[in-house]
Amino acid sequence: MADGGPAPAPPRPRAVLEPGRLRPPVRPASLAVGALPVAGVVLTGVAFWWIGVSVPSLLAGLGDTLALLRRMLPPDLPPAPGLLSAVVETLLIAVAGTGIATLVSLPLAFAASRSHGSARLVRGVARLVIVLTRVVPTLVFAILFVRVFGLGPLAGGLAVAVHSVGMIAKLATDVIDEADPLPAEAVRACGARRWHVAVSTVVPRVLPSLVSIVLYRLDINIRASAVLGLVGAGGIGVALQTALGGLDYDRAAGIIGVIIALILVLEVLSVATRKRVGAAVPDRTTKGHVLPVSAGARHDVGWDRGRILRFAAVAATVVLFVVSVWSLEPAPQRLLDAWPNLRQLLTGMWPPAFSSDIVLGVLESLLMAIAAAVVGSAGGLVLALLTARGIAPWRPLATAARALVVVLRGVPDLVYALLFVAALGLGPFAGLLALWISCTALAAKFFTDSLEELDAVPRQALESVGATRPQVFLGATWPQFVPAFTGNGLFVVDLALRESIVLGIVGAGGIGYLMQESVATLSYDVTSAIVIVIAVVVYGIETIAQAARRQLLGR
Amino acid sequence: MRGRRSAIPTAAEEPGRYAVEMRGVHKAFGAVTVLDDVDLAVRRGEFVGLVGPSGAGKSTLLRLVNGMHTVERGSVRTLGTDPATCSRRGLRALRTKVGFAFQQFGLVGRLSAMENVLMGALATLRWPRYGVMSYPRALRVAALENLDRVGMADQRFQRCDTLSGGQQQRVAVARTLMQGPQLILADEPVASLDPASSALVLDILRRISREDDISVLCSLHQVELALANADRIVALRAGRVVLDEAADTLTADRLRTVYGTGDGTDG
Lengths: 555, 267
Ligand SMILES: Nc1ncnc2c1ncn2[C@@H]1O[C@H](COP(=O)(O)OP(=O)(O)O)[C@@H](O)[C@H]1O
Ligand SMILES: [Mg+2]
Prior knowledge:
The structure holds 2 protein chains of 2 kinds.
Chain A lengths: L27 H24 L3 H17 L8 H33 L7 H16 L2 H12 L3 H26 L2 H9 L4 H35 L8 H9 L3 H29 L27 H23 L4 H17 L7 H32 L7 H16 L2 H12 L3 H26 L3 H9 L3 H35 L8 H9 L3 H30 L2
Chain B lengths: L17 E12 L2 E12 L3 E5 L6 H8 L7 E6 L9 H9 L1 E4 L11 H6 L18 H13 L15 H14 L4 E5 L7 H18 L2 E6 L2 H7 L2 E6 L2 E7 L5 H8 L8
Parallel strand pairs in B: 3-7, 3-8, 5-6, 6-7
Antiparallel strand pairs in B: 1-2, 1-4, 8-9
Helix pairs in contact in B: 4-5, 5-6
The complex binds adenosine-5'-diphosphate and magnesium ion (MG).
The site of adenosine-5'-diphosphate has 11 residues of chain B, from strand 2 and helix 1.
């Protein structure tokens, strides 16, 4: 430094050319994300081997299925009055179940919420009820309630209600916990009681999200009610079961057509309603922040048209709910008669009789679900890429793919399972194919939505670089899409597991068959063991899926 | 104002002198006219600042230049080629020579700065790529040099969504450098940056333009930034060119009065 003169500024060292500097460091997190699909593919291989899925068996299955579909043509509709009453009964079961569940869920959600200072014990019990009712599928409750209350829509409505309690209360708890605590504290500071606080500060703010949660659940419950009849719990599924039992495939095709039509109409209606209500549906992909209903701040207190309409809608809802509950025929005598059955069920459940068959059955359900979710996600990805706006290569193909997905989603999983069992015989092969189709449709819908939500600018940036379509996809679209792909893929596993548990009811493999048999033979100790194992596995998968999703999509 | 027409010779008179040449350009979306009889030229190596209130049509104009939009009437020549008449392959070839910087950067947030920069060279490669190591070593070296030029070499393996806005825009500029561009189009590159980052990014753009003889057409919101960095200023207002002058003879006040500070919906 001392050897005189102003030293020239040293040139910036260009030491950046060492090979090590060109290699990105390895990130454990990205390894973990990469490991998930690998694990999925390995488990799918195991499941295919276990169930005996191979190219020849698939081709043979395709042939048999086509033969069955040919026998289903032309579809034949049951007489109109009977059909209409079956459709109405289906809808009423769903409305009654959803309504009852909503009434029970609200206090439960407040009791379970962190921010409302309920006693630790109360909160723990509330959480346990929510988890237990949520992880046991509707159809499992339906089987039990048919035992207790006899055949008919009462068992179905209650099954829908109990399962929905868990679902609605969980989402409602999240919404309540996320609501801004300040207004509540302000009111509490004025000396208000806890329930006053809940009613006056929290309810108004969570109401829009509650409405959309309940509408969303109603949508799901109508789909569920359509198949309750398969276990004798009322609705249009009874007619389907009768037709299939009598090998009357034309009639079965007609009824399935009606179910698809019903679900499509509801899909249109629910999209329209959600738009009108203007409340955000609890969002799967983002953090589920809920937007307030239209922000027009109006301070008038008179009766304008909107208020009259709202009031009319509320009144109509109440009337509809009362009618639906009444339609289940909950006569006091019937409920009293059910008491001995219920006591027999509950006492018979203890102690649970675990066995290796149960574990194997649940394992089979789990493998079916994972395999179906993996292959379904792959197929769903292809469909989504053909459909998503801004990515789809060809408009007419996109429209066709979108229509295909909507129709595929219109058929309940259990109906697919019934058809495959009829075509291919009993066993998990039929169940896997059924789940495969429904997972494909489900994944296609989720993936299309998330692809359309992606930021378009990186894509445009690569287009303006002169990249080819495949380069743009792999460079910009895919990296942005990976978290949604993995997260939604896990969600599909979660949903598929709930379905694969009940597929056995129609003989399509998994634990469901054992479950139904144990109830039929009054071996309630086996039933309770099965329910416990199911609950543990479903809760475990749900927790893993949610944690991974939060990791991947949250932030 | 009409005098500007004579300032632009036809391509036949002096071929290759202009990086961008627009004549009588008219563009509408449906019934809404967005650009109306626009003439504009960018000389080789020139830094042209495109100013105008939001909605004036700046983004639309820039997108016409690289063929993301096409004109209804009038002609556009970008580096001597009309993007509208190009085949898809021809358009890709043209875009290779034209860098584009977006207000929202257009980086893939989950990927490293290095990988985002490498993607600027995709047009020289045949197959899709995923991951830094899937690019040839020579390109990785080039990417690092370009990151160094924008002062981002040290953050090369940082995820882009963990970088500040100014840093992200510098990475985006490095990506355009990977193309070896003759022209850089920048659409409000500093509109979402703080003043210090804005100055830095524009400084880098101008330096690159000088050093590599790259023409730059850069739309800007702020008059002062345009005057400080551009050789020439073109002002748009409601789809019309209302001013086209060398930056050194222009004052901020005059520029402001000419193109107005309204929201561009009038007129
Ligand atoms: N793709 C498009 N479709 C319809 N209108 C558009 C589209 N792009 C821009 N516009 C309209 O063109 C006008 C100019 O937009 P733009 O070029 O983005 O202006 P600037 O970039 O100067 O803010 C605006 O009124 C805008 O609404
Ligand atoms: Mg713009």
